[in-house]
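User: Structure with fe (iii) ion, tokens only please.
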Amino acid sequence: MAQVDVDMLRVFTAELELCKVKAGESVAVLSAGTAKGEIAQTFMIAAQKLGAAVFHVNIPDLATANAAGVVGRSPLAGNRRAVEALKSANMVIDLLGMLFSAEQLELQAAGVRILLVVEPLHILKQMFPTVEHRRRVEAAEKLLKKARELRVTSAAGTDVRYRLQQYPVMTQYGYTDTPGRWDHWPSAFLFTNGNDGEVDGTVVLAPGDILCAFKRYVQEPVTLTIERGFITRIDGKGMDAALIRDYMESFRDPRAYAISHIGWGMHERATWYHMLATQRLQEERIMNALSFYGNVLFSTGPNTELGGTNDTACHLDIPLRNCNLFLDGEQILDTGKIAVPELRAAGWQ
Ligand code: FE
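Assistant:
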């Protein structure tokens, strides 16, 4: 076994301190295959240094476990003993991605807090969370929780309304010290879902918006017509519209066209241009794209994460730039900038 990377150990220990890992707790690391052995070992050493009892649940690697845009089919399904072992821990560090799965919901219901970690170390450091992220995201959560309508508009032609209150609000600020709560290191955004059948309007994807499933910036406008919570038309002459149409059709599932979560990004160190600037896109996920400051995170597909019944495997996350966002008429974002002073990062207008 290689020596533990001192820098990685320092960063992981700081993260687990934010998660308030302490003596008397038990921490489980969940991984698949051999690929993340060093990360798993380093997390275990960090947790043990903080006084926790530590163990590792490792299952065979399944290539389909977490392919881009295909979620909810957890490799833990059917592995009852692994689930029971994880349930016995206070905290699970998930290196494989249980996202949206029944197994994850079962762990949360048992009071286990879960931290998903799938980005490589350089992204974990670049977007390392702070208590200020939590404060700002939770201040935004208060506003979103009480809203009855969310509206997004843009100069590109977007004008869409979500009726709210059927679904909870979910926050992500990159760490978790709350029993039963899930988070993803790194991130800083929040979201909810429109009520079933109550999302209507038009979303115009503009050049520079991001199709996360393809790690691609939109080049030519795409107009999505939304009626009663579903996309009913995808118009656009360019390749982006063709890609979206082809991708969604490939699932052969009418529920793929449902509108999913809606919210906005608040991370001042995440960058919109990141996918073009990085030299290591292959090994990275998309947390810069989902989190960058002032994006409207529009998405399609499943809603099981927020307690809904649509478990389609077709999920598109599409961060939109330069949008206005209103909650019951109060402006929260103004052309991609945060308009509410208490939600702003220090030094941002
Ligand atoms: Fe999503």
